[in-house]
Amino acid sequence: MRIVLLSGGSGKRLWPLSNDSRSKQFLKVLKDPQGRPESMIQRVWRQLGEAGLQDKAYVATGKAQVEIIYGQLGSDVRLIAEPQRRDTFPAIALAATYLYAMEGVPLNETIVVMPVDPYVEVGFFRQLARLEEALDESGADLALVGVKPTYPSEKYGYIVPDARGDEGGSSFLNVGGFREKPREADAEEMIRRGALWNCGVFAFKLDMLINILIAYELPIHYEEMQRRYGSLPKISFDYEVVEKANRIAAVRYEGEWKDLGTWNTLTEEIEDSLTGKGIVSVETKNAHVINELEIPVAVLGLADIVVAASPDGILVADKSLSPQLKDMLKHSEQRPMYEERRWGRYKVLDYRRYPTGKEVLTKWIYISAGRNLSYQYHSLRDEVWTVVSGSGTVILNERKLSLAEGDVFIVPKESRHSVRANTDLEIIEVQTGDMLVEEDIVRLEQHWADIVELCPASEGTL
């Protein structure tokens, strides 16, 4: 069995803490068993380890999330990165070709696909083997995990069993159909007939999807699939595969499961009413404040609200209305103002565009001790760095220099450069150019040992 965790999302549902680079699964608003901040993806990855399944797991994601995943899960996590964002069918097809062509996974092996951010207990992951049993026993094309409902929710999709049910007490249900977000009365009736919540977890034999790709005359080798990825249709796996399946089975899970996809559901699992700088009055009831800014937020006498503040914006919302946030922001386009990377994180402090077309962007950059930026260059911008804390080593055009608090460092466009932090390092970076975009970066080497090999022995100070 192999497990593919789907990590995507546009970052709108939990705005302003989430953005296109830091989707909901990366927000460190939960607590691990030691009481330390933990994101949804870190929680799931930890639980996979506790269930003994990490060595079978892969994360399928987009290029924009690669750095933050390495930063949160470590550099050993196995990633399958989309060349560009398409939809779940192309993403799963790409993962299947990777497993088949690059990992040599046998065609009769079970592939489990699941979201990267369900809120479950570790026992959920120990149940995944039942999907393999259901496929073998039923002969179905797909096997799903269905959660036994605890109430008639209008927020979730439902797996509806067919007339055969579980066929004499077998370990699986025969699926008759699906129903998305029904009215409460309809949900009650479906639950009486044995319907389950659809938690987005399913399994298939690898040859099922490889044969679909062959039938569609799509590549089954990973490198060719990458080259042709942009021509694949933007279509979901549900529409392209699930709705066309001849037979679908489902296994029942009776433990805790939640989708923490909106502020009203997420705040149910946030222990502290105040995170960050702020004051919440005693008259305020059932409110959560999550503040990533350095200025305080005060809430006085309101109820059932969430206040979230980050460099990307400020949200004040009635919790019950927070699911409407994605639609409210669907026409809003803004570059991410905060990102996490494998080496640390950065925050945009200021951005200005002048009538001449010149742009100026100021960033605060934090590099963790022992980490380094890639060896890279930019074609569209010049940079000026001011070291405000810590020490490190700079490589500029193959020359190695020491860097310390108070140093000012100029990086002209096209200059090859990297920085390694000896201690935790904080830098204020000012970019100038006619177009300042994160995509203006060419990475030459990633690992510090490889970068150092490119440099002669010359060293110095600024």
UniProtKB/TrEMBL annotation:
Coiled coil: none
GO biological process: GDP-mannose biosynthetic process; polysaccharide metabolic process
Signal peptide per UniProt: none
Domain Nucleotidyl transferase intervals: 4-272
Mannose-6-phosphate isomerase type II C-terminal domain ranges (all copies): 341-446
Any one Pfam family match given in the protein's UniProt record, by short name: MannoseP_isomer
Protein name (Swiss-Prot/TrEMBL): Cupin domain-containing protein
Entries under Gene3D superfamilies matching the protein: Jelly Rolls, Spore Coat Polysaccharide Biosynthesis Protein SpsA, Chain A
GO MF term list: mannose-1-phosphate guanylyltransferase (GTP) activity
